[in-house]
Specification:
mainly alpha; about 0% strand
Length: about 120
């Protein structure tokens, strides 16, 4: 039988595997797994309780040069959720802002106005 707490164990194991893929340079495989983890975590727990999984996904998106998707995820979901639940000055909220800044500066399609954000 499958219980709900088993889902968290599975997601934790998949997170470790995704990290290993990233460490091995298998970035596309890590991204596929991170997407799945984030979607399942949000469905199970909600956005506020899955900010770390979202952070991992945004880093994978940046690593695979999917900056537009990373910026959208950070602006629309992760940063607002982190600000609501953790506060604007929390270390993790600031880390998400840093990841957004990386996406903005690394994206060759970013405009000057984007960078001034």
């Amino acid at each position: 039988r499958y219980w709900s707490h088993d889902e968290q164990y599975i997601l934790n194991a998949q997170t470790i595997i995704a990290s290993c893929f990233g460490d091995l340079g298998r970035l596309d495989e890590a991204l596929v797994l991170r997407r799945e983890i984030y979607v399942r975590s949000v469905a199970t727990l909600g956005v506020e309780d899955t900010i770390i999984d979202g952070c991992n996904l945004s880093i994978s998106l940046n690593n695979t040069r999917r900056y537009k998707e990373s910026k959208t995820l950070l602006r629309d979901q992760l940063l607002p959720a982190a600000q609501r639940s953790l506060g604007s000055d929390h270390d993790f909220t600031l880390r998400l802002s840093q990841i957004l800044a990386t996406a903005l500066t690394d994206d060759p399609e970013s405009t000057r106005d984007d960078l001034l954000e």
